[in-house]
Amino acid sequence: MSDAFSGNLSQFKLLDILRLLHASNRTGQLELTQEDGSFAEIYFVNGQIKHAIYEEYFGEEAIYALFSWAEGTFKFRSGEVTDEETTMLTTEEIIAESVTYAADWESVRRVIPSRNTVFKLSARSSRDFSMRAEDWAVLREVDGYKSVKEIAEATQLTELQASRIMVRLYDLGLIEIGGEAEPIQQVVETVDESILSRVERELTVAIGPMAPIVMDDCVEMLGHKRSEFPKEYFPALLERLAEEIPDSDRRVRFQESMLEIMKQVL
Questions:
Q1: Are 237 and 218 in contact (CB under 8 A)?
Q2: What is the pLDDT of residues 66-121, one digit of tens each?
Q3: Contact 102/13 with Cβ under 8 angstroms?
Q4: Domain-embedded: residue 187
Q5: CA angle, corner 77, sides to 115 and 57, nearest 5?
Q6: Which of 56, 77, 106 is where one domain is finished?
Q7: Which of 83, 98, 233, 249 has the largest CB neighbor count within 10 A?
């Protein structure tokens, strides 16, 4: 396997990727993204998962939550490391547990194709059934507008728990699919290209003609394009760039100049 590889989760399942990186004793960062902006990172050291983050989840819980993705892209960058350690289990244990999560989500997807699926109360007649407290909690939130994700948040359940209940309510004939929620378009403030050009010039003073390449690599590592780089990631970019300057005096001068630029951006 090459040092860097990428693909689509619809063709290469997350569970298979984890197994492959574990079996080949890889060290690096597995980055996963979706079109709606969802983003996750999993770090490996010699095939062992040491850190994972996805939304509010960390460690094993972040990995298990990622099995809700039916689609998305992934990219593995060999050699990328972090000081964070958020996993408590061995990778063998995480993979074993992930088998159950993968199977559960596959079962859920026969009814719920995505977390943006919207349900409404059904006009279908339902057979005899008994309702549990959690069934009622979810049913009260079904209004033809809330997505599965929003219902999970409203009921303080995980997406998998809420999805299982909604599949049950669907099978009972109590709810039916009403469509898909329109994704919320978040306005992201970006860094002006002229600011990034100033940063590149200062970096060139510090490390020479390799600065544009280093700059583009660091921007890509943070999962963004230079032409659409978010302001909120600007401090992280400057920190990564400073780490690329081997001379300590030049690094300090670069950081000092960056402080002035940051005052203008943030």
A1: yes
A2: 998 888 899 999 988 999 999 999 999 999 999 999 898 888 888 888 778 889 88
A3: yes
A4: no
A5: 35
A6: 106
A7: 98
